[in-house]
Amino acid sequence: MTSLPPAGASTPLAGALAADATRAATGLPVKRTRRAGASPWAYAGITVIVIYCLAPFYWMVVSALRRPDDQFSNQAFPWPISLANFESAFKPSNGFGRALLNSLVVAGLTTILTLVIGITAAYVLARLEFRFKNVILAAIIATSMFPGISLLVPLLKLFVSIHWINTFQAMILPSMSFALPLAVFNLTAFFKQMPFALEEAAQIDGASPMQAFRKVILPLAAPGVFTTAILTFIAAWNEFIIALSVTNKQDMRTAPVITSLFTGQYGYDQPFGTQMAAGVVVTIPLVILVLFFQRRIVEGLTSGGVK
Amino acid sequence: MTTAVQAPTPPAKAVGPMRQDRRRGVGRFAALLLSPTVLVLALVIGYPIVSALRLSFQVTHQGINPTTGMVENTSHVGLANYAGIFSGDSASQFWNAFWNTTTFTVAGVAIETVIGVAMALIMHKAFRGRGIVRASVLVPWAIPTAISGLLWKWIFQSDGIANTVLHTHVLWTTEGFHAWGAVLIADVWKTAPFIGLLALAGLQVIPGEVYEAAKVDGSGPWRTFFRITLPLARPALVVAVLFRMLDALRMFDLPFVLIGAHKHSVETLSTFAWYEASNLRYGTAAAYSTVLFLYIAVVAFVFVKVLGADLIGRGVEGKKK
User: Fold this and answer.
1) Three-class SS of residue B59?
2) What predicted TM-score, i.e. pTM, was given to this entire model?
3) What is the domain count for chain B?
4) Fewer CB atoms inside 10 A, N or C side of chain B?
5) Where are the domains of chain A?
6) Which residues in chain A (124-143) have CB-CB distances under 8 A to chain B?
């Protein structure tokens, strides 16, 4: 699920895009020949990539839009289009609407808590010099590689004994185990890029480190914080194993979990049409985020690890 | 890194105490701002890890109490949970899960890396349509794994689109090698674009002059790829592969949703430990998950020490040398 992007360096994509723009503007002959030579194959390759990435997603959307009677049709276009699958996904007995709300609460609160806690840590790790700094940063990064299952087994036992099963905190707290390292990692990379002259200027003006952080750094770091928020939210929204294990009541399930547990009319037939419709609903917010913030997301994912 | 504390420079006697004072202030400030993160991580990671270790040595027996005649659980400290890995019925199940975890990781990451690098090379060449490509590459990554498991389950139905397109009649989601293959395909689809993005970022920092120089020296495309592109993009690639491997080793959602819980052909260490825990055998579950944890730690260690994966990034560890 969540992969932790490596921290450290700048935003190479933005740089490359800027370089493209300059090339286009100056129209250097060398570049022009390279572009003309590369394009037919490159376009074919690009088409293959886009089809590879989107075809299964397209199939989910298409299957969701079929009439239940045509569900097993393998036509590339659903005709006539029907919203029956969406209606049955939102049928009260499925509890899907409530599950979406639960997902929003869990992912939203996880993101907010993670950012509030992680921002200060990332700032300290990126900007200040103190003892054991590398050890702490390495430890925080190391925590991101712990397998969810080895955290889950004891937590499950604990949550049973303190009656936390079917509560939001039982999903939010363990989610921070992957969200917090991810956020600290990304934010540290972002803070490192900011010029040190900012704090120096603030200090010359008599600001304490705390004031420099709050009044100077934080407002300027807003884009990085926003990118981190998107990545954290997506990771928390997609979380499955914790949400599956610490809930057993339908009205506390999150959307991905409840979708995977939908049962058909007779219990044994899997209602794929309904599940595809619910899958589309669960995925749409993320696809919208991806469409609007693709550049930021890519920058966040690739920040660092690149020398 | 901590030079100011270690080295009180003799000539600056007047400044010394003041500077030391400020350094101590910075240290205290840093500790204050770091403490929430450290505290939360200790709570949600430190505690469970220690607790899992303790649980894994707790052996539970179910027996009938001779005086009351009730079924009771008695537990004592011992190595039985780990011993079960090497003998008895659980041993074959464990090693099957271990084998599946390893093969999913090795095969999956190898295929993903090849496809991902190919994607990166193409994306690097393309000048127009970057936005569309980037957005579509992000779609598999953004779809929740559980949902993509459902989606692939639908695709792999007996009368589904996969069999129609391939003109086959494989029952993909039933036990067998094809189930393993189905999980692998679904995993590769979701994660190859992620490697592609990281590899692309690695390609983009290679200066164009290097390629021009290679061209002048008469280097062909393959030679250029293996001698220039790959070595220069290596740091980015090693980190991407490491992250993917750590992720693949703990694979849970895909086999669980696509094939089902406790299915022999796709059982991973994560799903096996989960199955044990869901049957309230916490001791064995903790033992299996501890083994998985150690396995992951060894892989990470090998990557960082042998292949030199720099996770922290330049500016911290990098400056040390």
Assistant:
1) strand
2) 0.84
3) 2
4) C
5) 95-261
6) 124-125, 128-131, 133-134, 136-138, 140-143
